[in-house]
Design a protein that fits this description.
JMJD6_ArgDemeth/LysHydrox, JmjC domain-containing protein
Length: about 80
């Protein structure tokens, strides 16, 4: 499992459960993905998404696919447990 604590500006997170194939590509930035791929995904193929703001904590289980988009210069603390 992973915990993330945001210290400075918000981050936008995109999450897919382990049983869904993500539409991310390791050779593209999240910003490129948000601009070029995300708008064209059918609703049923879009990831779970959220914006984490300073002082908030995000938890997600092992093996979940994820991508982050920093909305500005970002400072955060991340830990893996297990």
């Amino acid at each position: 499992m992973r915990y993330l604590f945001i210290l400075q500006p918000p981050q936008r997170w995109f999450l897919y459960p382990p049983d869904k194939a993500p539409h991310f590509h390791p050779n593209y930035t999240t910003l490129s993905w948000v601009k070029d791929t995300y708008p064209y995904l059918p609703e049923e193929e879009k990831p779970i998404e959220c914006t984490i703001r300073p002082g908030e904590v995000l938890y997600f289980p092992d093996r979940w696919w994820h991508a982050t988009l920093n909305l500005d210069t970002s400072v955060f603390i991340s830990t893996f447990l297990g």
